[in-house]
């Protein structure tokens, strides 16, 4: 990395509770989260140079204030550190946040404290990318001055060396140097393939689903995800409707958001097999690795894979999912895992186990962040687009200073420096909970 602009001593960290009333129109609804208000604990890392890093984690309304408290508790570990100090031992910094002798009792590396860790680390990655004047995904490319050793030095291999050693990770990255430039050029031209979840939230009517699906087909979408799991009759009707609309050749995925027990999942999904879903997402409890393995085994003869990860707590869980052949699609999440650092570990493990990564996105800002990770995966790790696509949800992008650009159902690589986390200050003020205008208005209704 360049020596310029690397002082940036962190003077203070601010965090705000920002919520969007998406539940009013059932955007984001599924079989388990029937009234989601897409929200963030929104963090700004301030430095003595004036440069700021922006970051957040994603939540669903109530409880965001708890994540805000956890960010405040972590802030003391960050203040006083310079960017130089952090990035010269990013693994050590990750461990400082995730292994504090007192605060790790709240996790470790899971739940609220890990969401808060993600928010803070996302802000630090944003700061680093801004200091280097690169979008985050480019921090890792050759002309940014980085090398595979530096990337590997950001990863905490504790608890995963039985699946992936540092040497193996380095080897993967070194091998992937070949063809990197062509892959980057290809991405700049064509973008990364995406699928849409925007047509079929569980609370949408059939009429709405039809209209949204018609619009999506016109805009070039070829891969669609439908929410299922509350009522088998409804699921059958909705899947039939969407399959009829998209035809036999386009891709359909279904997502139950953890609604079923293991045997129930197998039975329910078998009943929907006639609609040829590529995967069933989150069929059961996200912690039940052996349950997912049993579902995977039972559904394999039907050609249906299991996808999970949006609520997978950490790299250790992903390791076991991979070791147990319990998933066929890895769904990393930019705000659930410990930021880029922990996501790198999962991308590298997925590559070793030959399982495609299809990130979870949507929410508020998740598309903005995860596009960096999946571009990195293609350019620097997997080198493959086979069976790979990134989720897209068409909500709340207008609140970001560098919103995602989708062209013909592809994510076009971000150009602005940073990790695309910054929100418009006017949006933050308006949606801050409970004092923002949007929420004051709700109270009065
Ligand atoms: C509550 C969220 O909207 C959730 O349904 C998102 C999700 O499962 C997905 O995008 O996949
Ligand atoms: Mg999902």
TrEMBL record:
Protein name: Mitochondrial enolase superfamily member 1
Mandelate racemase/muconate lactonizing enzyme C-terminal domain mapped to chain residues: 206-302
EC assignment: 4.2.1.68
Coiled-coil region list: none
Presence of the UniProt keyword Cytoplasm in the record: no
GO molecular function: L-fuconate dehydratase activity; magnesium ion binding
Top EC class, one word: lyase
Stated family: Belongs to the mandelate racemase/muconate lactonizing enzyme family. ENOSF1 subfamily.
Keyword line: Lyase, Magnesium, Metal-binding
Signal peptide, first to last residue: none
Any one GO biological process: carbohydrate catabolic process
Reactions performed catalytically: L-fuconate = 2-dehydro-3-deoxy-L-fuconate + H2O
Species this protein is from: Sparus aurata (Gilthead sea bream)
InterPro entries noted in UniProt: Enolase-like_C_sf, Enolase-like_N, Enolase_C-like, L-fuconate_dehydratase, Mandel_Rmase/mucon_lact_enz_CS, Mandelate_racemase_C, Mandelate_racemase_N_dom, RHMD-like
PANTHER family: ENOLASE SUPERFAMILY, MANDELATE RACEMASE, MITOCHONDRIAL ENOLASE SUPERFAMILY MEMBER 1
Cofactor(s) listed: Mg(2+)
Superkingdom: Eukaryota
């Amino acid at each position: 990395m360049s020596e310029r602009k690397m002082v940036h001593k962190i003077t203070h960290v601010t965090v705000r509770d920002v919520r969007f009333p998406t539940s009013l129109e059932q955007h984001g609804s599924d079989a388990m989260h029937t009234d989601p208000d897409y929200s963030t604990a929104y963090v700004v890392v301030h430095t003595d140079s004036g440069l700021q890093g922006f970051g957040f984690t994603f939540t669903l309304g109530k409880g965001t204030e708890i994540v805000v408290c956890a960010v405040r508790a972590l802030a003391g570990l960050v203040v006083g550190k310079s960017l130089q100090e952090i990035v010269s031992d990013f693994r050590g910094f990750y461990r400082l946040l995730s292994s504090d002798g007192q605060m790790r009792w709240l996790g470790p590396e899971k739940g609220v404290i890990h969401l808060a860790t993600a928010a803070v680390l996302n802000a630090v990655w944003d700061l680093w990318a801004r200091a280097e004047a690169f979008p985050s995904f480019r921090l890792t490319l050759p002309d940014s001055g980085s090398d595979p050793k530096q990337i590997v030095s950001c990863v905490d291999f504790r608890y995963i060396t039985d699946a992936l050693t540092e040497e193996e990770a380095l080897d993967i990255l070194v091998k992937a140097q070949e063809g990197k430039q062509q892959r980057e050029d290809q991405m700049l031209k064509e973008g990364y393939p995406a699928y849409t979840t925007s047509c079929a939230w569980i609370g949408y009517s059939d009429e709405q689903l039809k209209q949204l699906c018609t619009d999506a087909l016109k805009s070039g979408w070829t891969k669609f995800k439908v929410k299922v799991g509350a009522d088998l009759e409804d699921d059958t009707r909705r899947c039939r409707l969407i399959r009829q609309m998209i035809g036999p050749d386009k891709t359909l995925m279904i997502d139950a958001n953890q609604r079923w027990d293991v045997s129930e999942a197998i039975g329910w999904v078998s009943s929907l097999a006639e609609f040829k879903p590529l995967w069933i997402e989150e069929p059961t409890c996200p912690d039940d690795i052996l349950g997912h393995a049993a579902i995977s085994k039972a559904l394999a003869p039907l050609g249906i894979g299991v996808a999970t990860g949006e609520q997978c707590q950490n790299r250790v869980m992903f390791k076991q999912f991979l070791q147990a052949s319990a998933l066929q699609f890895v769904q990393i999440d930019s705000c659930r895992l410990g930021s880029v650092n922990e996501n790198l570990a999962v991308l590298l493990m997925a590559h070793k186990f030959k399982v495609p990564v299809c990130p979870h996105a949507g929410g508020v800002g998740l598309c903005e962040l995860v596009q960096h990770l999946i571009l990195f995966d293609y350019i620097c790790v997997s080198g493959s687009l086979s069976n790979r696509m990134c989720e897209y949800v068409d909500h709340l992008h207008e609140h970001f200073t560098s919103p995602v650009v989708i062209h013909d159902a592809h994510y076009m690589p971000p150009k602005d420096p940073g990790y695309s986390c910054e929100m418009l200050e006017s949006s933050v003020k308006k949606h801050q909970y409970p004092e923002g205008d949007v929420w004051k208005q709700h109270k009065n209704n």
